[in-house]
């Protein structure tokens, strides 16, 4: 069994995620096989800016007809290649009721009240979405319309909306099965029918789920079954049922983990992790579920992953060495960078160059950088 150090595993991960800027077109970035989350303003564009030779603007993502924004992993909005959507949709079909229940984030008492299996709840909601979303519609309108078509047990009281409507997470995980995508760049969130909906399939496709797990392990490995389940938003037992056969077991500083067997050579000899990057909140690199591997120090980890309002991460030579935030005031951006330990002057200067790239991606020529 191959045994590697934590530093070696992170260097491999940095290379697999494209942080060496060796790909010029976002569409060709291998990481897009897994998708790019876009939950906060410009997250996907800034994640690409950290990986592309030139800054990527949010408008260029919105205008790229080769990409689609959909609610996918954990019900979060992700950019995916349109050509990948059929395989992705198949991979997101719950393999059984425990899988569906975990994805829905319901309690067992809620299922008992509904008196319907979790899988049936998901696809009953998907059918309602397919019936309602025949043109671009705001999320609020869609929610209101499908609530009328669904049993009352599918709904919850929403304090923010001051209304009772379909459970938010349920609508999110059912939307892709219902043939709906998100209109990129729109606020409030707007749903629209996928141009090529195809027929809805309710049958699990274990092979598609296994391939999705392999993708997670390729870009975030070596990792565990629990890590994979956390990313998919399901239970570990559900992942074990579709655990890929083509994996190699690897020890990372004594921890038992897995990686696709065809990536072993890349793991054994990863390129140097040297370099500085400003990773936005919810960047794929910090979305790895093994946070203790990414940032072993618990106090520092609390600074990187906050319950509310997480900052971006300052990546220096393979280690997260600080955090960063930016604040817009008109057409001016103010960057605030905080280092965990004093950085070399050259690393600070490179971090400031990275801030200039982020400002360019946001369309701001006027920006400032302060260190705290």
UniProtKB/TrEMBL annotation:
Keywords: DNA-binding. InterPro entries: AlkZ-like. Pfam families: AlkZ-like. GO terms for molecular function: DNA binding. The keyword DNA-binding applies. It comes from the Bacteria. This is Winged helix DNA-binding domain-containing protein. It comes from Amycolatopsis halotolerans.
């Amino acid at each position: 069994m191959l045994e590697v150090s934590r530093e070696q595993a992170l260097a491999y991960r940095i290379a697999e995620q494209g942080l060496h800027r060796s790909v010029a077109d976002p569409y060709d970035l291998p990481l897009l096989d897994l998708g790019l989350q876009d939950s906060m303003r410009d997250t996907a564009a800034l994640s690409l800016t950290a990986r592309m030779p030139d800054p990527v603007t949010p408008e260029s993502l919105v205008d790229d007809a080769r990409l689609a924004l959909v609610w996918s992993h954990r019900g979060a909005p992700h950019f995916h290649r349109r050509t990948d959507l059929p395989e992705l949709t198949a991979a997101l079909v719950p393999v059984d009721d425990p899988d569906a229940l975990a994805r829905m984030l319901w309690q067992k008492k809620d299922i008992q009240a509904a008196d319907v299996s979790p899988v049936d709840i998901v696809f009953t909601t998907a059918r309602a979405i397919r019936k309602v979303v025949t043109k671009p519609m705001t999320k609020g309108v869609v929610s209101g319309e499908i609530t009328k078509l669904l049993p009352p047990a599918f709904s919850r009281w929403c304090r923010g909306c001051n209304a009772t409507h379909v459970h938010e997470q349920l609508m999110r995980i059912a939307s892709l099965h219902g043939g709906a995508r998100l209109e990129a760049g729109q606020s409030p969130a707007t749903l629209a029918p996928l141009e090529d909906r195809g027929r809805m399939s309710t049958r699990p496709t274990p092979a598609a789920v296994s391939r999705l797990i392999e993708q997670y392990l390729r870009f975030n490995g070596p990792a565990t079954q629990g890590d994979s389940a956390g990313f998919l938003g399901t239970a570990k037992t559900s992942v074990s049922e579709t655990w890929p056969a083509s994996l190699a077991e690897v020890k990372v500083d004594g921890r038992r983990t897995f990686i696709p067997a065809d990536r072993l050579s890349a793991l054994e000899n990863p390129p140097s992790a040297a370099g500085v990057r400003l990773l936005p909140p919810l960047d794929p690199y910090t979305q790895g579920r093994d946070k203790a591997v990414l940032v072993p120090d618990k106090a520092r980890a609390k600074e990187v992953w906050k319950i509310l309002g997480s900052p971006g991460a300052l990546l220096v030579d393979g280690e997260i060495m600080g955090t960063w935030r930016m604040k817009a005031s008109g057409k001016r951006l103010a960057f605030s960078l905080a280092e965990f330990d004093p950085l070399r002057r050259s690393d600070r200067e490179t971090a400031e160059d990275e801030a200039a790239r982020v400002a360019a991606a946001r369309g701001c020529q006027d920006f400032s950088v302060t260190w705290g």
